[in-house]
Backbone:
């Protein structure tokens, strides 16, 4: 069966410090991978998605970047954190292929609560 | 820009009561999904509805997709404390773009 691992679960970082959140998927090959941010009362905002190694699409301009160094590994990074980067970050995967997301949806990780102080 | 609205935003009920939450948009979607999220966890997919007017049942949960594919409802019968969580709807348009609603936070008191 497929599983998705995301760590750390919580993180408190000072403003201006770097960030690295990691996500790995097991039990599937060539998944589509996603980073979402969830703010209270505002739903989920798609930050990045990837359909393959080294292929990253950014949905919103921001202080963050993403990388996919391996097929089942997705990393969210920042060189210098801002207070506004605080939030709940979710990694997710979906089966690749046309229309699969519409039918099978996302499988989310357990999230990282990031607090920038 | 497609938007999804969910109502109510918050709902607190007693165990055993019935409830309905709504997901509305002015846009047409090719499919719509409902997720439940517990505190400190990621959302978990409950159901996908695809056909206008479609009704799906998952134990005590009944999901309906509107005839015009612009809205959906989730009805819970005899709510239990284990139903507590944030219920998110997500619409998928024909271009395979997802949009999530802000969610309904449900609290079922024992």
Residues:
């Amino acid at each position: 069966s497929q599983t998705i691992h995301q760590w750390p679960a919580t993180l408190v970082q000072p403003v201006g410090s770097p960030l690295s959140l990691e996500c790995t998927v097991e039990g599937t090959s060539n998944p589509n991978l996603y980073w979402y941010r969830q703010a209270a009362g505002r739903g989920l905002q798609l930050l990045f998605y990837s359909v393959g190694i080294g292929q990253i699409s950014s949905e919103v301009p921001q202080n963050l970047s993403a990388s996919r160094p391996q097929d089942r590994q997705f990393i969210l990074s920042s060189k210098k954190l801002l207070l506004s980067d605080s939030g709940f970050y979710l990694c997710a995967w979906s089966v690749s292929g046309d229309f699969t997301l519409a039918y099978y949806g996302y499988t989310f990780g357990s999230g990282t609560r990031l607090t920038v102080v | 820009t497609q938007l999804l609205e969910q109502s109510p935003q918050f709902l607190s009920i007693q165990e055993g009561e019935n409830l309905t939450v709504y997901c509305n948009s002015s846009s047409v979607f090719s499919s719509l999904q409902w997720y439940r999220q517990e505190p400190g966890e990621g959302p978990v997919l409950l159901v996908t509805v695809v056909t206008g007017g479609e009704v799906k049942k998952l134990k005590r949960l009944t999901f309906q997709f509107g005839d015009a594919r612009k809205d959906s409802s989730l009805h819970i019968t005899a709510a239990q404390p284990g139903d507590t969580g944030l219920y998110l709807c997500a619409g998928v348009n024909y271009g395979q773009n997802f949009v999530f609603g802000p969610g309904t936070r449900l609290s079922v008191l024992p």
